[in-house]
Design brief:
Length: 59
């Protein structure tokens, strides 16, 4: 990710609990969460495009 365009943070919400990871320019645009469940909401915040949100099941 670049200084001008990067994901500031990403999180997931599982069973009402949020798990967040901060990401910095120069990092890979990815995060690993050691949780699983149903009806997971994933969000990320990009400094250019703003908030993205998705829902579903991820293993
Ligand atoms: Fe973006």
């Amino acid at each position: 990710m670049e200084e001008k365009h990067y994901i500031k943070w990403t999180d997931i919400v599982v069973a009402g609990k949020a798990y967040r990871r901060s990401i910095s320019p120069g990092d890979a645009p990815e995060a690993v969460f050691g949780v699983s469940g149903e009806n997971i909401t994933a969000r990320e915040y990009c400094n250019v495009h703003g908030l993205w949100k998705g829902e579903g099941q991820w293993a």
